[in-house]
Each structure stands twice: as C-alpha cells, then as structure tokens.
C-alpha cells in the first residue's frame, strides 16, 4: 500500500498553484472553472508518471519555486523551460525523473514559455472544494489548503507515494511545442462576428498580434490593429473558455480559465482549448497570429488530442 509523503516549499516564487482538470457545473453560481492554463503540458506531466486524467499537478508560473523532498518520489516536468535544476543539475522538461529524500528541486526564470507543470506519481492530495482541487485565487477556492492561494514558503504538498511508473520516460518530440515560435491560434468564428467591419475581420486574420503585459490566468490582452464593431453594448451573457471579447478600444481580450462567468463586450469568437493552451505559454511581447477554424474541425482535433490520455 502506498504511503503519504510530502514536498516542502523552501521558496515559493511568484505563482505556484495546484490544479486538477477544473471545476465544472458551478458557473450558474458565478464560480469559474480554474484548472491548468496549459492542459496539454499538464496532461503530459501526469501521463509520464502514470497518473489518470484529472490528477492534480502543480502549475509553476515564471519560476522562483524551490521544493525539498521529504522522501523518495517519481515526478515529471512538462511545459515551459523555467531553468529547473535538481541539486544544481539541469532538468530537461517533458521527462520523468526521480527525486530522492532531501534533494532540492528549484525553478529559476523562464527560458521559453511561462508555465511548467510538475506531477508526482500517485498525485498531489488536498480536500476538494465544490468538487475540485483547482486553485482560483480570485475566488478563494481550491488549492493545496482549500483556501484558493498560491504556495508560500513553509507550505507542504502532500501526495501518496507510488512506485516507479511503467509508461514512457519522456514525451515524444512531436508533442512538445516550440514556445519561441510565432503560434497560429485557431479561432472559431461566432457570437457577434458579423457585426465587425469587413476591414477589421481582414486585419484580425491577416495581421500579427502581440501579447500585452496585461495577461494572467483570467485573460490575455492582445495589441494590434484596432477592430471596429457596429455593436456598442450588449446584455451580459455567458462566457466560455477562449472567448475573444473586443472592448471599445478595439484591442481583443482572450478569456482563460479564471475568467468571469458573464460579459457584455462583443465577441469575435472563441479560441479552441488547444489554442488557449498555447496562448498561456506566450510571453509578453511575443507575436502571434489568429486563424479561423470551423467548429467541426476544432472538435475533431480536440477529440484526437484527448484520446491520447485515455
């Protein structure tokens, strides 16, 4: 039988949050979903240590985190390269590794990407809030202590220690995004797209955008050509993951996991879940492109991706 164990937080860094697949079925209460900003990297971290879909992993944003193992454990790291080291020796993302009792796992600063995901064989443990461990700081829900807060120095992360995983030791190169490249993010047209001027629609899909410094788990503002819409105001309506709202200044805001549940700005459409995952790894100032994608093609792409983790 597996035993309880823990990782001790020596240094917290700017933002490290425990995230499972997300909190669903509660948006009618005004509660958002949370969950990993980059589910692709999150899912691969869990897969490399044989954890089933939905197992909580640690989302480390920008680095700065230092953990010490209180007993031996198998872990996996996926997503951004945040200069992680094990007792001072570099760790390569998208791989499984063994962390011995007393060893130190440290994250420095981003080399490429923004968010790394750390999974432990057996999964991190915490009490669910409204059916999920997902940490949403704005709502004070979930996380390692159920208080909706980031890790702090002196905290411990509990897990149920498991034996050596039997699956692949590293993710294949084909699934590892090049975070330094300019991504082309798939957008499903919809909502109020017909109300945008033709010149704005042309610009939206034929000119580059840059990620603004005003970006967090709630949403990412893009800067580029000014989009003009014939709609001045709307009655607030439900907002899904990836919704691309366009406020009066004409600069789109892509809403992510910790978004509000309703909004009243006209929408160009929605980024697909996998496009949101890629956007979540873009650093401020990084250039990207939007490309239209049909609903059926987007659905089929997501189903194929999801089947990798069945």
Count all strands and give the number.
20
Q: What percentage of amino acids are in beta strands?
A: 25-35%
Task: Indicate the overall shape.
Answer: globular
Whole-number mean pLDDT = 96
- H/I helix tally: 4
Q: Helical amount among residues, as a percent range?
A: 10-25%
Q: Termini, distance in Å? A: 25 Å
Account of the 3D structure:
This protein is of the alpha+beta class and 310 residues long. The chain contains 4 helices and 20 strands. It has helices spanning 39-48, 198-206, 273-279, 295-307, and strands spanning 4-11, 15-19, 57-61, 66-69, 73-81, 85-86, 89-90, 95-99, 104-106, 112-120, 156-160, 184-189, 209-215, 219-223, 237-238, 243-245, 253-255, 262-263, 267-271, 287-292. A 7-stranded mixed beta barrel has the order 12-19-16-17-14-13-20. A 6-stranded antiparallel β-sheet has the order 7-6-9-4-1-11, with no helix packed on it. The protein has a 5-stranded antiparallel β-sheet with strand order 2-3-10-5-8. It starts with a strand and ends with a helix. 45% of the residues are buried.
Entry summary:
The protein is 13% helix and 31% strand. The chain has four helices and 20 strands.
Features:
20 strands; 6-stranded antiparallel β-sheet; alpha+beta; 310 residues; single chain; globular; 7-stranded mixed beta barrel
């Amino acid at each position: 039988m597996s035993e309880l164990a823990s990782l001790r937080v020596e240094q917290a860094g700017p933002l490290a949050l425990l995230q499972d697949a997300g909190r669903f079925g509660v948006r009618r209460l005004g509660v958002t979903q949370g969950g990993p900003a980059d589910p692709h990297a999150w899912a691969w971290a869990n897969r490399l240590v044989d954890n089933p879909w939905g197992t909580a992993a640690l989302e480390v944003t920008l680095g700065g985190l230092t953990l010490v193992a209180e007993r031996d454990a198998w872990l996996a790291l996926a997503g951004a390269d945040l200069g992680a080291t094990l007792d001072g020796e570099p760790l390569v993302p998208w791989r499984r590794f063994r962390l011995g009792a007393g060893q130190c796992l440290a994250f420095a600063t981003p080399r490429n990407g923004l968010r790394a995901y750390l999974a432990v064989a057996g999964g991190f443990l915490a009490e669910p809030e409204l059916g999920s461990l997902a940490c949403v700081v704005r709502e004070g829900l979930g996380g390692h202590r159920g208080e909706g807060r980031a890790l702090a120095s002196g905290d411990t992360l509990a897990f149920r220690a498991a034996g050596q995983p039997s699956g692949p030791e590293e993710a294949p190169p084909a699934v590892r995004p090049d975070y330094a490249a300019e991504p082309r993010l798939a957008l499903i047209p919809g909502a109020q797209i017909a109300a945008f001027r033709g010149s704005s629609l042309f610009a939206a899909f034929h000119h580059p955008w840059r990620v603004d410094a005003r970006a967090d788990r709630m949403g990412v503002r893009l800067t580029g050509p000014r989009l003009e819409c014939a709609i001045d105001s709307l009655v607030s309506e439900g907002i899904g993951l990836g919704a691309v709202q366009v406020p009066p200044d004409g600069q789109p805001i892509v809403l992510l996991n910790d978004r509000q549940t309703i909004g009243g700005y006209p929408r160009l459409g929605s980024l697909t879940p996998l496009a949101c995952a890629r956007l979540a790894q873009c650093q401020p100032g990084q250039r990207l492109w939007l490309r239209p994608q049909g609903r059926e093609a987007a659905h089929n792409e997501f189903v194929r991706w999801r089947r990798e983790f069945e």
